[in-house]
Amino acid sequence: MMKALFRLTAWTLAIALVVLPVAAVLNGWIGGERWPMRHLRVSGEFHLVTDQQVRDTVLPNVGKGYFAVNLEQVRKNIAGLPWVKQVDVRKRWPDRLEVTVTEYKPLARWGEKKLLAENGEIFAIPKNATFKLPLFEGQEDNASEMMSFYSYAKPLFLTMGLQVQSIRMSARGSWSLTLSDGLEIEVGRGEPQQRLARFARLMPQIKNDEPNRQLQRADLRYTNGFALSWKQAQGKSEVANNLQQGST
Predict the structure, then answer these.
(1) Which fold has domain 107-245?
(2) Pairing state between β 135-137 and 164-169
(3) CATH fold of 31-103, please?
(4) Tens of pLDDT along 30-46?
C-alpha cells in the first residue's frame, strides 16, 4: 500500500515538474524575457484603418512573450476597430507576429445609420465617420440589385458633370433617383434601365431647348415618353403637364 502511494506521489511530482513550467510559459508567468515578441508585420490593403491603430491594439497582448500570445484575443481586438472586416493573425518563430487586415470599402450610405460595402455587405457606420457617398434606400435583400442599377446609372450622367446622389427602390420594385443638381427622376418598374438610358440621351437636348430653366423632376413612367417639371430661376416650381417624346 505504501509503495503504491509512493509511486503515485512520484508520478504526480514528475508530471507537475513537466506541466507546470509549460503552463507557466504559455501563460506568460515566465519566459517573457527569454522569448520576447520583437517584430510586428502588418499587411493588407487598408486606408481607413491606420497601421498605428493596429499596433496600439496588438501591443498589450504581446508583453508576456512569444508563447503567451493569444492569437484569438488579438484577432478579436483588431476586429473591433472601426472599418475592419476581417483579420488573420499568425506567429512566426522566433519573435514575429504577422497581422493581415481586410477593411470594408464603403460604396454608399444605406439609410441613415449603415453603410453598404463594395462586396454587398451592410454594416454600421463607425463613430465619428465623415464621408461623401451616395444614399441608397431599399430593402437589404435587394442590396445587390441596387448596386447593379447604380453601376449602370452612374456613367449615364457623367458626361453632363452630374453624379447620382441617391437611389431608391420601393418594396414593389419601383426605382427613383436624385442627381447632384437636385433633379429627381422617377423611373418606375418596367425596363428601368432602358427608360433611364433613353432619358439620359435626350437630357442634353432638353436642357439646350430650355436654357433659362432648371429641370426639377422627370417622370419616366410612360410608354412613349416622360413628363417634366421645371424650376424657375426665382425658385418657384413650374410643372409641365405636356408629355415629352422619349425617342430621338
Answers:
(1) Rossmann fold (3.40.50)
(2) parallel
(3) Ubiquitin-like (UB roll) (3.10.20)
(4) 444 566 888 889 998 88
